[in-house]
Amino acid sequence: MTHNPFRNETGGRIDRNSPVGFEFNGRIYAGYDGDTLASALLANGVFLTARSFKYHRPRGVMGAGVEEPSCLVELLGADAGGNHAATTVRLQPGLRAKSVNCWPSPNFDLMSINQLFARFLPAGFYYKTFMWPNWHLFEPSIRRAAGLAAAPDDKIPDQHFETRYWYGDVLVVGGGPCGLLAALIASRSGARVMIVDDHPHPGGYLRASQTEIDGKPAMEWVAAVIAELDTNPEVTRLQDATAWGYRENNLLMITERSPAESHVFQRGWKARAGQVILATGAIERNLVFTNNDLPGIMLASAVQTYLHEFGVMPGRRVMIFANNSSAYALAHDLQADDLQAAGTAIAGIIDSRPADAIGAEKDGLEIPIYTAHQVTAAHGGKHLRALSIRADDGNIKRVDCDLLAVSGGWNPAVHLFSQARGTLAYDDELASFVPDKAAQRLACVGAAAGKMNLASALADTISTITASLGEDGFESPAFTMPISAASPDYHLHPLWHVDGMKPGDKAFVDIQNDVTLDDIGLAMREGFDTVEHVKRYTTAGMGIDQGKTGNVNVIGNIAEASAKSPGDIGTTTFRSPFTPVDFGSIAGHRNGATVLPFRHTPITQWNRDHGAVMYEAGARWQRPGYFPIEGGDMQDAINAEAEAVRYGVGVYDGSPLGKFDVSGRDAAAFIDLLYTNDFGDLEIGMGRYGIMLTDDGMILDDGVTFKLADNHYLMSTSTGFADLVYRHMDYLLQVECPGWQVWITPVTSQWCNATICGPNARDVVEALGTSIDISNEALPFMAMRDGIVADMPARICRVSFTGEVSFEINVWPRHAEAMWRRIMEIGAPFGIVPVGSETSHVLRVEKGFLSLGHEVDATADPYDLGIGWIMSRTKTHAIGRRSVDIRRSSGKPRRELVGLIPETNGELVPEGAPITPNGERVASEGFVSACVWSVVNKQVIALGLLTNGRARIGETIIIRDQERMIKAVVTKPCFHDPKGERLRG
Amino acid sequence: MLSLPCPFCGQRDETEFLNAGPAKPARPNADVTDSKWVEWLTVPVNTIGYVEEKWWHAKGCGKWFTIKRHTVTHEIKMPDEDGR
């Protein structure tokens, strides 16, 4: 027999035949199937379940659902996840959980020493205290002390996250009476419907009340509605699923926590509907008095839920403290004979309203009602033991109790409405905010719309949904209104806080964020007197809570202190997520390479087989960085590869280079528009280097374009910028030049190339056997020819990014690996080596060739980079030309490309290191764009951009590498074969 | 995530598209003053209300098109829907 000392003999919707074992903070307990972690803990008499965020005060369970502000747990093992409210965690066999914010346990919490220092931890404490010398010094230890749960370390075994999309006509959020009714009517009209409910079982507040509908217990009506919805194939019903984000164009983000499929841990839904019905209900708010956070103090609605849903009575001697009529329903429930017989004593109701304001809700109650009384303080160490209550004549008396059910009124759950950018209005009768103007196609019904009486809320739901379905062309059949028993009208007197606190007393307005009434006062005294400022200064309403239980109390207290109406104070922005969400449920299957797949060339496997260190080299292309050599480090390997290219022969896989086939009647004119230099006199079979600018005169890309025929070009782009160049060209053709006949075909993956480079490159190509005359006369630098190489169809291009003689052997992808193997085999006697991207970088820096993202950033223009000749004087129409001219006409000094020879002992200077005047801590005058060990110069060389650099050649400048000063001599930006004789050879 | 009306494919989720910023008026002629040119280049309309935007159906049909999007409600119209 499961020992649950606070479980009633009967009652509740749990299965008493199915005990469930679980672990909490290292101890083993048992509950029943149908419990939440919170209800099982309460049934076991575990009331102290958490420590508070800032002061580490003892805390227990306060709520029964998503509103729970204090009992946050971290789930361990197979269910790993952080910051779950214990009230939303379904009890499952083997569940393991621990409290957040306390170490080693909530009963013995070492951090609770913070309480002793509480007066040093006022609002804004962190902002004020840790300004000097620098916040980052203090951040790690503060985060450790104040943080919530840690993220789980391990992947979930045997299960995975999943994402699904849903598109339909009507999406109903909330499975209470109004939500069910809306879904029912919508489904009968033929609409495609989704209904999302964050409880494991439908019914909403009906589950915790004694209400009748159509003369039967309300839950029988719920069962009939569910049965009908579930037989309709156009209806998707999600239980234990929270709609936590309301996005643009009626898209809702939903996390389904317990999908039917056992292999799915959680399912994230992105659901888009023609119209959304928000039946999200209302959330009860707390009352603000001294020690209102003590374990044993719960929301009245939560006590009702524990009683009716879980058969748990979390106290023996109960008091109720309310400022409204709704809490009386609990008093009626607690008078039940079986509860009284089992030893529950209801000691009375403390109602802050005067006697004449209390209506029919009190009829039939046989307990003391302390009208016009207030609770001034709760007493007890780790649990509630007694209350001080004060009559309106000021007399205070002490009442013993171990459970206080509080009700400060109800806040319509407007979170999703507000996320959808709807405006809120303050309702004086409810003393809360209700939906005002919607900004999307949605409607609120029931308590979410401020309709607190069941009968009128149902009637309102029918007219709302019928009208909005009609707007979308759905005809709802005549519907008979379910008849619910008349319930007493909801009536409330706002009570924002109980007066008469003594210094040092703590009364919490926001329990989760540990924000007290004093903090609000302090913020306002210090001038942070608007609601947005108070929120940021005190952190009230932030984090997981997002103002569920505390926000309106914060606003009410600001209003009271500034003698305004809460409506004039307004609310802060409600942000998503409404409840904590596991990142996994947003990501679904998309992680790592499934988000953005890697790109591979046909040589990848060969590279791996030969030990290459592979990494990304732009646009997700996986390339070999370098090929490690025995007995040497990375630098040795790079040096060996670079020396092979400079003095022998090397080969690299140039396949990732972006390539576009440009053809059509207006192709030549289009190339002319794109590039700043002239392509008009380019001969067929020849290529030319060009620079492309954006309209604002920034360099978009550089590369070589070959003319294949009249109005037919092969354009190459940088690896990382091919997609951007494509977008640029497509935009121009579709938007700005719609009449032009130009076809762009991306052929990056249709042509693979092996680039053979070095003084012996021509010998290797000869040895491969080719139908193409590769003599320098027949195939000069920048020429291309089609033919046969090594018995395969191929195109040879003579382009060089290394400064040596280079032959790009372009072949179809299906021949690429065979060609590569032939080159390695035939090239072996010539000492050919494969070259990785690190070595390519060294070689291009030695030559001073540009690299986008290094020298070419969003500030440099072609003149700055020493290639002003590329800005054709006659081509004023080329894109970006005018902007460059305007910018340069200001005459302001420009940063210009230079070479740098840093004085280091062979150490490289980090790329990006700033150059400052005289090395002082002042604004930089340039930066190091690339730095390598040069195998031809046998020293460290660098490229950089330097203000007026070309006029400063020979000068010594100073590079700052954090606190280290490095002198460097300014040179021309070319360290090898400045005349270019080798690459033309 | 917006839902965007591709003129070719119909209503699709934003993830299929790339935003290309505010739609600009037609490129000015070469003879405009420098200040007019810079204004065309750098001054986008930024209002509370409908703005015109360029989108590219990059992961779909490849169509470039212009929409009017309300910056508060994200309501989307085609530019010709109000008589333009």
Number of domains of chain A: 7
**Spatial extent as radius of gyration of chain A:** 37 Å
By CATH, the topology of chain B is Folate-binding fold
- Give the rounded overall mean pLDDT of chain B: 90
CATH architecture assignment of the largest domain in chain A: 3-Layer(bba) Sandwich
Largest sheet of chain B: 4 strands, antiparallel
Strand segment tally of chain A: 49
Oligomer: heterodimer
Of all protein chain pairs, which has the greatest interface, and how many residues does each chain bring to it? A-B, 24 and 24 residues
| CATH fold name of the largest domain in chain A | FAD/NAD(P)-binding domain
Largest sheet report of chain A: 7 strands, mixed
User: Could you state the order of secondary-structure elements of chain B as H and E?
Assistant: EEEHEEE
Low-confidence stretches of chain B: none
The residue fraction in helices of chain A comes out at 10-25%
CATH class of the largest domain in chain A: Alpha Beta
Structural class of chain A: alpha+beta
Taken together, the total number of domains of chain B comes to: 1
CATH superfamily of the largest domain in chain A: FAD/NAD(P)-binding domain
CATH class of chain B: Alpha Beta
Span of the ends, CA to CA of chain A: 93 Å
Q: What this model shows, in words?
A:
- The complex is a heterodimer of chains A (985) and B (84).
- Chain A has 985 residues and is of the alpha+beta class.
- Chain A has 7 domains: 1-154, Roll (Ubiquitin-like (UB roll)); 160-283 and 412-471, 3-Layer(bba) Sandwich (FAD/NAD(P)-binding domain); 286-408 and 489-504, 3-Layer(bba) Sandwich (FAD/NAD(P)-binding domain), CATH 3.50.50.60; 507-569, Arc Repressor Mutant, subunit A (Orthogonal Bundle); 640-655 and 751-852, 2-Layer Sandwich (Gyrase A, domain 2); 658-746, Alpha-Beta Plaits (2-Layer Sandwich); 891-985, Aminomethyltransferase beta-barrel domains (Elongation Factor Tu (Ef-tu), domain 3, Beta Barrel), CATH 2.40.30.110.
- In chain A, 23% of the residues lie in helices and 27% in strands.
- Chain A is built from 24 helices and 49 strands.
- In chain A, the strands form 13 sheets. In chain A, strands 8, 9, 12, 13, 14, 15 and 28 form a 7-stranded mixed β-sheet that branches.
- In chain A, a hairpin with a 4-residue loop joins β46 and β47.
- Chain A is elongated.
- The model of chain A has no long low-confidence stretch (mean pLDDT 91).
- Chain B has 84 residues and is mainly β.
- Chain B has a single domain (3-82), classed as Folate-binding fold.
- Chain B contains 1 helix and 6 strands; from the N terminus they run βββαβββ.
- In chain B, β5 and β6 form a beta hairpin.
- Chain B is globular and about 40 Å long.
- Chain A binds chain B through residues 165, 247-251, 270, 272, 421, 439-440, 695-696, 727, 730-731, 734-736, 876-877, 882-883, 886, and chain B through 1-3, 13-14, 18, 20, 27, 30, 34, 37-38, 41-42, 54, 56, 58, 62-64, 72-74, 76.
